[in-house]
């Protein structure tokens, strides 16, 4: 039995692929209720105790019910988390059909905490 993993918060990434917009929004709200930060439309990151990880995935699964979808929760160790990278393009969205016009385009190490 590993006592440390039961009592200390770990970096977690929650990602999901849910076809129902209503259910997808409920799972997003649930992730935010647990203090996770949205990093993509269907991806959240933050620190959670093991008990909260289990509770979150159970509650998300309850919301999914019989609807099509998948929900994953990955734990990431401190060392791996500190080595993560991000690529950021800040600028106009390409939703109007035009290519994005980046104000800034860079790939860099992440220095911020997930919470």
Summarize the structure in words.
With 115 residues, the protein is α+β, with helices and mostly antiparallel strands. 33% of the residues lie in helices and 38% in strands. The chain has four helices and six strands; from the N terminus they run H-E-H-E-E-H-E-H-E-E. It has helices at residues 3-7, 21-33, 50-64, 78-82, and strands at 10-18, 37-40, 43-48, 69-76, 85-92, 101-109. The strands form two sheets. It has a four-stranded antiparallel β-sheet with strand order 2-3-1-4. A two-stranded antiparallel sheet has the order 5-6. Strand 5 and strand 6 (101-109) form a beta hairpin. The longest helix has 15 residues, at 50-64. It is globular and about 40 Å long. Residues 1-6 have low confidence and may be disordered.
Topology:
Layout: H1 3-7, E1 10-18, H2 21-33, E2 37-40, E3 43-48, H3 50-64, E4 69-76, H4 78-82, E5 85-92, E6 101-109
Antiparallel strand pairs: 1-3, 1-4, 2-3, 5-6
Helix pairs in contact: 2-3
Any key phrases for this structure?
single chain, alpha+beta, 115 residues, disordered N terminus
- Unreliable runs, pLDDT <50, ≥5 residues? 1-6
> What strand line-up does the widest sheet have?
2-3-1-4
Beta strand %: 35-45%
Determine the N-to-C terminus distance.
27 Å
H and E order: HEHEEHEHEE
**Number of beta strands:** 6
Mean pLDDT: 84
Biggest β-sheet: count, sense, barrel? Answer: 4 strands, antiparallel
Shape: globular
Number of helices: 4
Oligomer: single chain
Rg over CA atoms, rounded to whole Å, is 16 Å
- The percent range for helix content is 25-40%
SS-derived structural category = alpha+beta
């Amino acid at each position: 039995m590993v006592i440390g993993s039961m009592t200390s918060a770990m970096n977690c990434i929650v990602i999901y692929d849910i076809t129902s917009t209503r259910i997808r929004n409920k799972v997003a709200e649930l992730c935010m209720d647990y203090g996770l930060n949205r990093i993509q439309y269907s991806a959240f990151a933050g620190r959670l105790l093991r008990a909260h990880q289990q509770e979150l995935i159970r509650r998300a699964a309850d919301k999914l019910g019989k609807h099509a979808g998948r929900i994953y929760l990955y734990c990431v160790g401190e060392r791996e988390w500190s080595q993560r990278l991000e690529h950021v393009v800040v600028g106009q969205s390409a939703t109007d059909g035009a290519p994005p016009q980046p104000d800034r385009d860079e790939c860099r190490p992440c220095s911020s905490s997930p919470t």
